[in-house]
Amino acid sequence: MPKIYDRDYFDRWYRERPVLSRQRLARKVALAVATAEYHLERPIRSVLDVGCGEGVWRTPLLGLRPKLAYLGFDSSDYAVRRFGARRNLHLARFADFEMLRPCPPVDLLVCSDVLHYLSAREIDRGLPGLAALCGGVAFLECFAREDQAEGDDDGFHQRPASFYRDRFTAVGFAQIGSHCWLSPALAGRATALEIAPAAPRRRRIELR
């Protein structure tokens, strides 16, 4: 049965038993913004959030950069219906980015806690589009078999980290650590030690 991202889902994982506190989210957002601005050498102006859910990244992003343009996409009818008008959220599945080009390449592309719930086919269809839409840094947060993740395991795919790393690099992203990847446009400007393979991790983490 397909996973349903309805009000009950978001109430359970974001309000009743949230594993991502506001403080933790704020640190994650600050990391992504600082990394993008370090490599772009200017403040970020645009963010595309793929698999944005209720758009929880929007408020902390605007708290740091009040003038940035935020655009979110999610497959949840509930989230888009409830928050779309206020938070600039739109309906789309990940695979839709095979063809979907809703904006020029953005300074920061976010795909947080999404990919490990998608089929390999959907990832392979949509990922080249994300590379095309990223002009700065992509925050591609996903968890692998090595992480021994806890939390929302409904539909979670137990894949090795190499599954994601190989696919990200195949479409032109370059790994710079902490779930951050340089866009194909910036990858060639990085110094040798800014680009590094991710080390295996055994720390127990939680999914939302």
Automatic annotation (TrEMBL):
Name of one Pfam family that matches: Methyltransf_12
GO molecular function per UniProt: methyltransferase activity
Coiled-coil features, chain-numbered ranges: none
GO biological process, one term: methylation
Domain of life: Bacteria
Broad EC category: transferase
UniProt keyword list: Methyltransferase, Transferase
Annotated Methyltransferase type domain residues: 48-133
EC number(s) reported in the record: 2.1.-.-
Name under which the protein is recorded: Class I SAM-dependent methyltransferase
